From TrEMBL:
Pfam families: DUF1501
Protein name, UniProt field: DUF1501 domain-containing protein
Organism of origin: Bremerella cremea
Domain of life: Bacteria
Transmembrane segments: none
């Protein structure tokens, strides 16, 4: 067949519909796509999806810093002491606990002792093990949730659910939902930033901070650790701001002409907006991410002056600077690539990682207080699940999604408390169990959002972060 230059061949089904039937196909396409998703109120999204939005309730916090210990930290070695575990160490799990399905299948493994030294800290008497001595000094600021529950038995499903609400990928992340519901205050910076502690790939990769079926504008932006956290941010020295602006304007014209024929293509819209954001970031971001302007005392507070704590300490300090400059949601990964996954040698594994995060996290909490950011910033700590009281490979612990610990601090959450409890061995949540759906609903409630009203319509279905199953825990807000 000969090419016919006067005939433009559609590049997609959307373009075919838009040009078919004298344009009537475009009407059908617009109806199918709904042009833009609508909230349950029936009002359209604002033209700028990142524009600040009103809350349903008075917000206790405006920003979130989520400290994600990827791989599953052992709650029974950190925040949930179990004296009976040491008494029964070496024995089989009592029959009264029923059948347990473990990720790695060592169903006959004996109980393993916890050789931790436990002490009560602060006026509240909160129990913290000797693995986290610096965080223990902040005990009165922590609300420790000992009864968390997840459905993910392996890392992929566990990390996915803790980030998106579902064990299967494809849904928007918690940070995307927060950005969708609240927008962001600083239009010159991303609303949602992710920092990892190494070059290792986080399990599931960018899906953990993706926007799923929402417009791509809500997805997280990954920064790198080190002196140059934003790759390719600064233009070459011979490119002037005026020349950069002219290039961007031309690119915007071409992209928008392309977009007019492809209604509903959120990836293209997000790319156009990302170019604009990147241009604004070239002016705003360098100063925000430059840690050299911090005092030596502050760097020491985060442990940046020490080899073991330098990386995570730098990320924690970066997180404080980001929320201080209007970034809505910041997520920090410790142990990227399932580093906390202690199937063997939990002493060496957790000992090293606790050393890496203990001082930086305590420094972050103290720094937020002294800089007036405490009430506005919700800090969350935890992983995708906990570890079992039974041993694995003799000196490790398996995955445990049926009962584990997370904690929250700041953001109006009363500290010095524990919520819920696991059984006498730390295997299952038995008092006030909080599923991941409940945790997500509670986090949004702290941000002033009613999770039952934060709806995104996808393929005609009203979608929510909690899969229509969660409830906000009022005890976290000190209201019950």
């Amino acid at each position: 067949m000969h090419n016919r230059p006067h005939i433009e061949v559609p590049t997609s089904r959307r373009e075919f519909l838009a040009k078919s039937g004298g344009g009537f196909g475009a009407l059908a396409l617009a109806a199918l796509l709904g042009d833009r998703a609508q909230a349950d109120s029936g009002t359209s999204e604002p033209l700028d999806p990142r524009a600040p939005k009103a809350t349903h309730f008075p917000a206790k916090a405006k920003n979130v810093i989520f400290l994600f210990m990827e791989g599953g930290p052992s709650h029974i070695d950190l925040f949930d002491p179990k004296p009976l575990l040491n008494k029964l160490a070496g024995q089989q799990l009592p029959d009264s606990f029923g059948k347990v399905i473990l990720a790695m299948g060592e169903n006959d493994a004996p109980l393993m002792e916890c050789p931790r030294v436990w002490n009560q800290h602060g006026e509240s008497g909160l129990w913290v093990s000797e693995w986290l001595p610096e965080i223990a000094t902040c005990a009165d600021d922590l609300c420790v949730i000992r009864s968390c529950v997840s459905d993910g038995i392996n890392h992929s499903s566990g990390v996915c659910q803790m980030n998106t609400g579902h064990v299967i990928g494809g849904r928007p992340s918690l940070g995307a939902w927060a950005t969708y519901g609240l927008g962001t205050e600083n239009q010159d910076m991303p609303a949602f930033v992710v920092l990892t502690d190494s070059n290792r790939q986080v399990v599931n990769g960018p899906r953990n901070w993706g926007s799923g079926f929402m417009p791509a504008a809500y997805q997280g932006v990954q920064f790198k650790s080190g002196a140059d956290p934003i790759l390719n941010l600064n233009p070459p020295s011979h490119i002037t701001p005026d020349r950069q602006r002219a290039k961007l304007d031309l690119l915007g014209q071409i992209d928008r002409r392309h977009s007019e024929l492809r209604h509903g293509d959120s990836d293209l819209e997000a790319r156009i907006k990302s170019y604009e954001l990147a241009f604004r970031m070239q002016s705003a971001a360098p100063e925000i991410v430059d840690l050299s302007t911090e005092s030596e005392e502050t760097k020491q507070l985060y442990g940046i002056d020490q080899k073991e704590t330098n990386v995570f300490g730098s990320n924690c300090l970066m997180a404080r600077r980001l929320v201080e400059n209007g970034v809505r949601f910041v997520q920090l990964y410790s142990g990227a690539g399932s580093g906390w996954d202690a199937h063997s040698n939990i002493e060496g594994n957790h000992g090293k990682l606790c050393k890496a995060v203990d001082k930086p996290i305590a420094g972050l909490l103290k720094d937020l207080k002294r800089r007036g950011l405490w009430d506005d910033t919700l800090v969350i700590w935890g992983g995708e699940f906990g570890r079992t009281p039974m041993s694995e490979q003799g000196n490790g612990r398996d995955h445990n999604p049926t009962g584990f610990t997370m904690w929250m601090a700041g953001g109006g959450v009363p500290g010095g408390r524990t919520i819920g409890a696991t059984d006498e061995l730390g295997l299952r949540a038995v008092e006030n169990p909080l599923h991941v759906h409940d945790l997500h609903a509670s986090i949004l409630r702290i941000l002033g959002i009613d999770h039952t009203k934060l709806i995104y319509r996808h393929k005609g279905r009203p979608e929510r972060i909690d899969m229509n199953e969660g409830k906000a825990e009022m005890k976290l807000l000190g209201l019950a």
